[in-house]
C-alpha cells in the first residue's frame, strides 16, 4: 500500500479544491448560519415591534347576561396580547367593524351556553371560535358556582386546577429524540448519496480523460479504489465539519435568550447520538461508495453513470423511505426494524435510528457494526477487482451477469 | 538489462488475441513492434505493463520473472490521458511520486523534463490550455520522469508536428544511448528504421517475422539492381538485348532516372556491372535494390487478420 496515502492525499485535495465543492460548502455554511440566527432575529424583531409600536388586536364581545368583568377575566387569558372589549353596539355595527378590521373577531352570547362567532374569513385553521366556547364554559361554571356561595376567585381556582407531570425515561426518550433523529437520518441519507457521487465522478472522469491506463500501471487497483473512497470521505467529513461547526459554534456562544427554544433543543442533542451518527455515516458511506465506485468503473462517460448506479441508489432510497415510514408508524421497536438494523445495506441508517430511539443493549450495536465492517471489507475487495476490469472497458456497460463472469475469470 | 517475452497467449472471450508472442529487448537498444490494427501490439504491451494478465507465457527480466515494483518502466499508452483540469507541475509531481520518487525528486524531475520538452513557460498552466501536440510532450515527460530502465512507447509520434517529432527523436535517442531498453510500437516505418535495430512484425496474434532489420532485408534475394543514368530510356533496351536470358525484366523510371533490372540469379550482378562499364552510357549509380520496411510489413501482414 505504498501509494495509498499519496492517492488519498491527491483525491482529498482534488475534492476540497474543486470549485463546485467550495461553492456548495460556502452556500451551505450561509444557509446553516441563517437557520441558526434567523429565527432568533425574527422572533426578537417581531417581539419588540409588536410590544412597542403596534396597537393590540381587539376582540369584541357583545353585552350579555354575564357580568362584564367576568367576561373579560375569563376570555383575556385565552388570547394573550389581545384586548377584550365588552361592547353595547348592535350586531350590524359589530359585523361591519369585523369586516373593516377594527375587531379581529367578535362574539354575541345569546344564552348562558350559546354564542355566535363573528369573523371575516372562517378558515379551517381558525380555532378562535372553539377557544371562545371554552371561555364561555368557564364563565358558566364560575357563575353557577357563585350561586352556591363561592366568589369568582375561588371558583376560578377550582376550575383551573391543574397537575404537574415530569417524565423520567430509564431508557431512551423517543418523544424528545424523534425530531433530531429524523433530521440526522435525512442528513445521513443525503451525505451518503452526495459523497458517494464524488467517488463515481472521480472514477468516470479519470476514465473519460484516459488517465486511468497510466494510473493502473503506477498503482494497484486496491490502492486507487481505497485512496479514492477514503479521500472523498474525508472531504465529505471536512465539509460536514465546516457546516456543522459554523452552525454550532456561534449558537454555543450566543446569549441563550437570543436563541429560539426549538434551536436550543438541537444544541442539546446528546454527544453520544452525534458520535453514533458519525460512526454510521462512515460505515454507510464506505459501504455504498465502494459499490458506486466499482460500478462507475464501467461507465465510459458521465452519461452512463445514471444507468449503472440507479440500482444502488434505489436500494438506498428504499431503505430511507421504509425507515421514514416505520418511524412515523411507531414501528421503531418492531421485528422488521430489528432485521433492518442487522442487514448491512440498511443497518447504517436503521441501527442509528434504533439505537437512538429504542433502548437496546450495546452488544446489538456492536454486532451490527462488525457486520457492516465485514461487508465493507468484502465490498472493498470486490470493488478493487471490478475496478481493474472495468476501467479499461469502453463502449456499452456490461450486464450484471457479465460482470460476475469477468470477476470469476479474473480470480 | 534484458527483457524477454516468451510464448505469450491471451484470449478475450472466445477470441484468441495473442497466439504465442515472443520478443526480446536489451539495454541500449530499441525494438520496433509492428503490425496492423488489431494484430495484438497493444495487448502485448498492456500485458508487459501488468494491465492485463496473460493466459500463459512469461515475461522475464534478466532471466527472472518481471517484478514491476522493482523496475522503473516508462509507459506512453496508446490512449493518451492525464488530468486536463490540473496544473502540469502538480500532476507530474503526483505521477512521479506514484512511480516511486520522493516529493523532492519528483519536483526536480518535473522541472528537468518539462524544460527538456521546451515547455517551461507552461509548467503552472492547466493541461487543457495546451495544444494537442504540447499535451503529447507533457505525456512524454510523464513517461520519462523516473529515468526508466525500460521505456514502452505506443505510437509516440501520432499527433506531433515535424519539429516536435524531431525533439522526440532526439530524446528517445538520448535515452537509448544512456542505456534504456525501448519497445516502440508505430505505424510510421521511417521512425522504426531510424531507431530500431530489431523489429517484430505481428500478424493475427502471432509473430510473422522478427530479428535485426538489416538481416531481414539481406534475407531477401539480391537479384534486383537499380542503375541510375540520365539516358535511362536508351539504357533499358541496351541492357535487355545484351543480357538476353540472364535478365527476367528491365523497367525504366523517368522520375528517378533509374532502370530496375531483375536478374535470374544474383550471381549475374558482376556481368551486369561489366556490361555497364563497357557501355557507351554515362552511369550515375548502381545498387542492389533492398526491400523497404514498408514492403516487408505489407508482405507479412497483407493476408490480414
What does this structure look like?
The complex is a heterodimer of chains A (411) and B (305). Helix content of chain A is 70%, strand content 6%. Chain A has helices at 4-16, 19-52, 68-75, 91-100, 128-147, 152-159, 174-208, 212-218, 221-253, 261-267, 271-296, 302-328, 335-342, 347-357, 362-390, 400-410; strands spanning 57-62, 82-87, 105-111, 114-118. Chain A has a 4-stranded mixed sheet with strand order 2-1-3-4, sandwiched between helices. In chain A, a hairpin with a 2-residue loop joins strand 3 (105-111) and strand 4. Chain A starts with a helix and ends with a helix. Chain B has 305 residues and is of the alpha/beta class. Chain B is built from 10 helices and 14 strands. In chain B, strand 1 (2-12) and strand 2 form a beta hairpin. In chain B, helix 2 crosses helix 3 and helix 3 (103-116) packs across helix 4. The radius of gyration of chain B is 24 Å and the shape is elongated. The chains are: A mainly alpha (411), B alpha/beta (305). Chain A binds chain B through residues 2-3, 6-7, 10, 206, 209-219, 392, and chain B through 46, 49-52, 73, 75, 77, 79-84, 94-95, 97-100, 142.
Topology:
The complex is a heterodimer of chains A (411) and B (305).
Chain A lengths: L3 H13 L2 H34 L4 E6 L5 H8 L6 E6 L3 H10 L4 E7 L2 E5 L9 H20 L4 H8 L14 H35 L3 H7 L2 H33 L7 H7 L3 H26 L5 H27 L6 H8 L4 H11 L4 H29 L9 H11 L1
Parallel strand pairs in A: 1-2, 1-3
Antiparallel strand pairs in A: 3-4
Helix pairs in contact in A: 1-9, 2-9, 3-5, 5-6, 7-9, 7-11, 7-12, 7-14, 9-11, 9-15, 11-12, 11-14, 11-15, 13-14, 14-15, 15-16
Chain B lengths: L1 E11 L2 E12 L3 E6 L5 H9 L6 E6 L2 E2 L7 E4 L11 H11 L4 H14 L15 H13 L5 E5 L7 H16 L3 E5 L3 H7 L2 E6 L2 E7 H6 L5 E6 L2 H12 L3 E7 L4 E6 L5 H10 L4 E6 L4 H9 L4
Parallel strand pairs in B: 3-8, 3-9, 6-7, 7-8
Antiparallel strand pairs in B: 1-2, 1-4, 4-5, 9-10, 11-13, 11-14, 12-13
Helix pairs in contact in B: 2-3, 3-4
Amino acid at each position: 500500500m505504498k501509494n495509498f496515502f499519496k492517492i488519498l492525499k491527491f483525491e482529498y485535495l482534488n475534492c476540497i479544491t474543486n470549485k463546485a465543492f467550495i461553492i456548495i460548502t460556502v452556500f451551505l455554511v450561509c444557509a446553516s448560519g441563517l437557520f441558526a440566527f434567523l429565527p432568533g432575529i425574527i422572533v426578537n424583531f417581531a417581539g419588540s415591534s409588536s410590544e412597542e409600536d403596534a396597537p393590540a388586536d381587539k376582540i369584541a364581545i357583545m353585552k350579555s347576561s354575564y357580568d362584564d368583568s367576568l367576561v373579560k377575566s375569563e376570555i383575556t387569558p385565552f388570547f394573550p396580547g389581545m384586548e377584550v372589549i365588552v361592547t353595547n353596539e348592535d350586531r350590524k355595527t359589530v359585523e361591519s367593524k369585523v369586516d373593516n378590521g377594527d375587531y379581529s373577531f367578535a362574539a354575541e352570547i345569546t344564552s348562558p351556553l350559546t354564542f355566535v362567532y363573528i369573523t371575516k374569513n372562517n378558515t379551517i385553521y381558525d380555532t378562535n371560535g372553539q377557544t371562545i366556547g371554552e371561555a364561555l364554559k368557564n364563565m358558566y361554571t364560575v357563575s353557577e358556582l357563585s350561586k352556591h356561595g363561592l366568589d369568582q376567585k375561588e371558583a376560578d381556582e377550582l376550575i383551573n386546577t391543574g397537575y404537574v407531570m415530569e417524565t423520567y425515561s430509564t431508557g431512551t426518550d423517543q418523544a424528545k429524540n424523534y425530531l433530531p433523529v429524523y433530521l440526522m437520518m435525512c442528513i445521513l441519507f443525503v451525505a451518503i448519496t452526495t459523497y458517494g457521487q464524488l467517488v463515481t465522478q472521480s472514477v468516470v472522469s479519470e476514465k473519460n480523460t484516459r488517465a486511468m491506463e497510466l494510473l493502473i500501471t503506477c498503482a494497484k487497483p486496491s490502492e486507487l479504489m481505497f485512496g479514492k473512497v477514503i479521500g472523498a470521505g474525508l472531504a465529505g467529513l471536512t465539509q460536514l465539519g465546516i457546516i456543522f461547526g459554523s452552525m454550532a459554534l456561534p449558537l454555543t456562544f450566543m446569549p441563550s435568550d437570543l436563541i429560539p427554544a426549538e434551536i436550543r433543543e438541537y444544541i442539546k442533542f446528546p454527544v453520544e447520538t452525534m458520535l453514533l451518527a458519525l460512526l454510521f455515516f462512515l460505515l454507510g458511506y464506505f459501504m455504498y461508495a465502494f459499490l458506486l465506485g466499482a460500478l462507475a468503473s464501467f461507465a465510459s462517460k458521465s452519461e452512463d453513470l445514471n444507468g449503472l448506479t440507479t440500482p444502488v441508489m434505489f436500494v438506498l432510497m428504499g431503505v430511507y423511505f421504509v425507515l421514514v415510514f416505520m418511524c412515523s408508524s411507531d414501528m421503531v421497536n418492531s421485528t422488521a426494524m430489528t432485521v433492518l438494523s442487522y442487514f448491512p445495506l440498511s443497518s447504517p441508517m436503521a441501527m442509528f435510528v434504533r439505537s437512538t430511539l429504542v433502548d437496546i443493549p450495546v452488544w446489538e450495536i456492536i454486532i451490527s457494526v462488525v457486520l457492516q465492517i465485514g461487508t465493507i471489507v468484502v465490498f472493498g475487495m470486490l470493488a478493487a477487482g471490478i475496478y481493474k476490469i472495468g476501467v479499461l472497458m469502453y463502449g456499452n456497460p456490461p450486464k450484471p451477469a457479465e460482470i460476475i463472469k469477468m470477476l470469476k475469470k479474473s480470480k | 538489462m534484458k527483457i524477454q517475452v516468451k510464448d505469450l497467449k491471451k484470449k478475450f472471450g472466445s477470441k484468441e488475441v495473442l497466439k504465442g508472442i515472443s520478443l526480446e529487448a536489451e539495454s541500449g537498444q530499441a525494438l520496433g513492434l509492428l503490425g496492423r490494427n488489431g494484430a495484438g501490439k497493444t495487448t502485448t504491451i498492456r500485458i508487459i505493463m501488468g494491465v492485463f494478465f496473460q493466459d500463459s507465457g512469461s515475461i522475464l527480466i534478466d532471466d527472472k520473472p518481471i517484478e514491476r515494483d522493482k523496475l522503473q518502466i516508462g509507459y506512453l499508452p496508446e490512449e493518451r490521458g492525464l488530468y486536463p483540469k490540473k496544473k502540469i507541475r502538480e500532476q507530474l509531481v503526483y505521477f512521479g511520486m506514484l512511480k516511486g520518487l520522493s516529493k523532492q525528486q519528483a519536483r526536480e524531475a518535473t522541472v528537468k523534463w518539462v524544460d527538456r520538452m521546451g515547455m517551461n513557460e507552461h509548467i503552472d498552466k492547466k493541461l487543457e490550455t495546451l495544444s494537442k501536440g504540447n499535451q503529447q510532450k507533457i505525456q512524454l515527460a510523464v513517461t520519462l520522469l523516473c529515468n526508466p530502465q525500460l521505456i514502452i512507447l505506443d505510437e509516440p509520434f501520432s499527433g506531433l508536428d515535424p519539429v516536435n517529432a524531431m525533439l522526440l527523436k532526439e530524446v528517445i535517442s538520448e535515452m537509448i544511448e544512456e542505456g534504456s531498453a525501448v519497445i516502440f510500437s508505430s505505424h510510421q516505418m521511417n521512425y522504426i528504421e531510424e531507431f530500431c535495430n530489431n523489429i517484430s512484425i505481428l500478424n493475427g496474434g502471432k509473430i510473422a517475422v522478427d530479428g535485426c532489420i538489416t538481416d531481414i532485408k539481406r534475407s531477401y534475394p539480391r537479384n534486383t539492381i537499380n542503375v541510375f543514368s540520365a539516358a535511362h530510356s536508351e539504357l533499358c533496351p541496351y541492357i535487355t538485348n545484351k543480357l538476353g536470358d540472364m535478365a527476367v525484366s528491365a523497367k525504366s523510371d523517368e522520375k528517378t532516372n533509374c532502370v530496375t533490372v531483375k536478374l535470374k540469379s544474383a550471381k549475374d550482378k558482376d556481368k551486369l556491372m561489366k556490361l555497364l562499364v563497357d557501355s557507351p552510357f554515362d552511369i550515375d549509380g548502381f545498387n542492389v535494390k533492398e526491400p523497404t520496411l514498408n514492403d516487408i510489413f505489407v508482405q507479412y501482414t497483407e493476408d490480414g487478420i
